[in-house]
């Protein structure tokens, strides 16, 4: 089976609004009921609000630490908390998500929409170390159809279904422009936010990652902690004069590599023997998107393809190697040479 991405459905002209795009693609699925479409709209709405909050953070006293730690033991930034509130509120008011699992919350957040068909796992604001220094940050989300009975609160099982059971996934990048990128399993599309009109417009109708590239993205400060095959791979990259590019915001590094080709690596380290990134709301959604764009996402030798992993707990971590197919392939080959 070729790993090149499937043709997405009817190509739509650049400049189509997100609203119109969602309506047109929905009409291609005879059994579509519009609930997933509404959920995507709710996420886009929260993204617009968070984009505004980020843009004026320095003026609105929402910069800096919040003074509390999240379940991961990380210092929460005020904007982490703001983004978390905004997304949970939008998903609650939208009525389609019966529950949310967030990086900023210990357990399941029940929205009260017990008839809701979907659950959402979300990293409301990715790139915490860059929030207050005006460097690109993002939101990452993953959507599942619930397995628990309608009319009852969601359960753990709804969130621990595994990467392949994702119905849709994507991210919002708050960078020089704000972009929404997502897949529903029919290719990857990107929308750019025009804040003066309050609209996302289709700017990337069919996102395909180049088969290879000359960029590697990792925190080389962890070099001495890296497994030998990773150090060997990075040495080989440097010998062929690849460029090191590391923003320190997963969404920003990932998005760049998706457009121009490259590989992002967050290997296991002594501090994080299972890697740093969270499986449910960082690695699964980005693995779904990259595979739909023709790339690859692996947890490393002996751990396998990220999409095949079955989670056992909510804030579980995993190593992540993702990007252009042949670069990830080469990295995995290092272990056996
Ligand atoms: O500082 P490090 O160890 O390089 O880690 C940076 C990585 O951790 C993250 O910040 C983790 O995400 P959060 O900011 O959501 O906790 C990624 O965005 C980034 O790629």
Automatic annotation (TrEMBL):
It is found in: Cytoplasm. Binds 2 magnesium ions per subunit. Its EC number is 3.1.3.11. Pathway: Carbohydrate biosynthesis; Calvin cycle. Coiled coil: none annotated. It catalyses: beta-D-fructose 1,6-bisphosphate + H2O = beta-D-fructose 6-phosphate + phosphate. Residues 209-332 form the Fructose-1-6-bisphosphatase class 1 C-terminal domain. Mg(2+) 1 binds at residues 103, 123, 125. SUPFAM superfamilies: Carbohydrate phosphatase. Pfam families: FBPase, FBPase_C. GO terms for molecular function: fructose 1,6-bisphosphate 1-phosphatase activity; magnesium ion binding. Keywords: Carbohydrate metabolism, Cytoplasm, Hydrolase, Magnesium, Metal-binding. Mg(2+) 2 binds at residues 123, 126, 282. Its cofactor is Mg(2+). Residues 17-205 form the Fructose-1-6-bisphosphatase class I N-terminal domain. Substrate binds at residues 126-129, 219, 246, 264-266, 276. One of its GO terms (biological process) is fructose 1,6-bisphosphate metabolic process. CDD domains: FBPase. GO terms for cellular component: cytosol. Homotetramer. Belongs to the FBPase class 1 family. NCBIfam families: PRK09293.1-1. HAMAP family: FBPase_class1. This is Fructose-1,6-bisphosphatase class 1. It comes from Hymenobacter aerilatus. The gene is fbp.
